[in-house]
Specification:
The protein is of the alpha+beta class. Helices cover 53% and strands 15% of the residues. The radius of gyration is 40 Å and the shape is elongated.
Length: 446
Amino acid sequence: MSRLGRGLPARVPGVSLHFRGEHEMLAGVVPALALSKGDLNEALREGERHASPGHGAWRFRQGLIISEVALTTVALIGAGLLLLSLRRLQRVNPGFDPHHVLAVGLDLYTRKYCASDSVRFCQELTDRLRAQPGVLSVTLTEFLPLSLMRGNAYVTIPGAESKAPRDGFEIQFDSIAPQYLQSLRIPLLEGREFTVRDDNSATPVVIINRTMAERFWPRQNPVGRIIRFLPENTERKVIGVAQDIKYHTLWDAPVSYLYLPMYQSHVLDPAVLVRTTADPMNEVGTVRREVAAMDQLVPIVDVTTLDQQAMDSSAQPRAAAEFVSVFGPLALVLAAAGIYGMLSYWVAGRTHEIGIRLALGAHRASVLKLVVGQGLKLTLIGVGLGVVGSLALTRFLSSVLYGIKPGDPLTFSVVALILGAVAFLASYIPARRATKVEPSVALKCG
């Protein structure tokens, strides 16, 4: 056997190892040599063309995402403002205790009661109901609290005639029976409440609220002062000052208000208020029975509770809050899906370009930053447009907002942070996928 033949088996391992090393080196050099023969900028631009086969279509998709984010911003800001307003509204103290109070409306018009007959009917009904077990107090009112019904009186105040308009000061009023303030637990600040003696044979009297007292008699005790009612030019003496309450809605601003004694008025559609120890609706049958025992032809026109009255008074802002609280999160999900879908498409189209960047030594972190930055950029533009639109549109919500301004900075900031977080997550998934692209595979996509 020749020297060559004898030495070959000993050299085969070395030769084989040397060949594999050269092969691996060539495998890495060949793509680089191929790239060195071309324009790298042109290669990257070619990758961009792969990413967006239609430049106008890509711009259109970006515009859709920006519009979607802007609309989502407006929806979330509106939802946040309304929900905060409703939450604060539910914490408002109406100024009286509505719990366990039954309200039953009567219609005395059908019986054509005169003033004395209506007073006699109301007094007897009150006495009958107070004698029932489980009843704490009974009173009557012309207008239920937290209802849109109201009366308006025109008055002048001796000593303030020069400040009064030609028709006098317009003051809202209610006609109430004795124990009204006590039954509703409205604080009496000065003087006394009406009694059964305050009827048509007694001196005309009136109770005013705190706002009216401070308006016409600041830093003075108004008890004993005179209020002149127009156009009859009749005078009534102030006998008490009651604390302000929410008369029509829970977001009412303080207004001047006065109470007239029902037994000095001819009220033919009173509401009976019955405070009970248990569920007030349990006493509906009792009220019906007692009314029928007195006069079977007197109809009951309405039955409710003051708790329900309080809920109904906030029905409009509650409905608005419920609507946007559903629409806002839905818009957020659609915006997140839109950002994710757009960036996934964008990454898939730029796979060739990403492969070139990685082959040239780009860090995967820079690719991650590139993709996430694209999503956050579109989100930032959309949020900016949405904030501008919200500042204009939320002014229309001011009529149903309570305790919060339409441009509340906290709400705007929280919504922007939420959208930023959602956009980051929606961008991160396709960005993470982009960083896992193998350069050799990506180059084949070109």
